[in-house]
TrEMBL record:
This is Ig-like domain-containing protein. Keywords: Disulfide bond, Immunoglobulin domain, Repeat, Signal. GO terms for cellular component: neuron projection. PROSITE patterns: IG_LIKE (PS50835). Residues 29-118, 125-214, 218-297 form the Ig-like domain. Gene3D superfamilies: Immunoglobulins (2.60.40.10).
Amino acid sequence: MSIDDAGSLVAFDTTTEYYTVPVSGKCVLTCYVAEVRSFKVLWQKIDRPIVNGNQTNVQEQLTLIAFDGIVYSNKDHYRLESDYVGSYNLIIDRVNEDDQGEYQCQINTEPRKTKKIFLTVQVPPRIVDFRPNPPLHSIRSGSSLTLSCRAEGTPMPQIRWRIRDVDMNQGNLLPPDNSNIWFIPSISNTFPRTVECIADNAVLPASNRIFTINVEYPPIIIINNDLIPTEQYQNVTIECHALSRPFARIIWEKNGKMIEKNKMSNTRVNQTMITSRLTIQMNNNDDFGQYNCIAENIHGRMEAFVLVLQESMQGIQNEKNHRYSKHYSSKLHTITHSTILTTTNIYIERDIHISSSSYRLWTTNILLYLLFLFQFSTIHR
């Protein structure tokens, strides 16, 4: 029997197979030969260069893995397994990215018989070097900003962006899905502080990159109460809130002169707001008037004022009269059931004065009349 005739009797499955295995996993490439006789079984790998993300058929390289039951590859994670008669399986332990490609199991008949196996190694997404685009950005309000997020993996990862801040109402700012570039033409000081790029290809774990955005802007002053009436010899505390990044330096001035720091206290409320409180002892007339709050940082300066006014004595007296009038009128209403509930202190005191004078005059007249009668009766005795 010739070699050709003997080769024709070898039962060999030449069906092309496709395997998919995650990186670091184990893969068993099966090859079954019945009646191998005197023929030899060979395992080899076909490496093809990748151009523009696609494998080409030019300059392919053959790498011998095993022949006639002996492993010749210098990769220690290749081994042969023959757990039953006719099996010539290739085991790949701890699969890595380089193991992806085309494998061939051959038997050296004439012509040769070949079984092809295509191995795909699933690789979790990995965001590539981001050093030209650091994750921490400090940028002036109104400037443009470009965020870049590029990832690799098998299959090719999809890119999506997410706002990590609590307020998710700014989701319309996000670029479309699978866009690895996020361009903001004019960034505002309300832009979310933290955004996240997520690369996902259904192979765990997904990869992410967090970008912290520090939008810097000049101070914005908020005065909740810009008119404060008070009395002399009272303590008054006035407040000034400044929004900015970086934090603003706050000072207080009156009549163009800076007020001593020991009369003020500054408190950082959050990452962008600082509150300044100024306490004043209203000892003199000069202590009343306009107080200027001045906030300044490297990007600009803003100024606002608070007026501290002295309550007039007439105004204070009117307030006292009003309170006394309400108190007395309520008593008057209780006694007379009158529907007139308002009066004035002057009116009430005048009434009381007139009533008292009338009573004293009446009493005096009675006494004089009695004295006259007494004297008259004495004379006529």
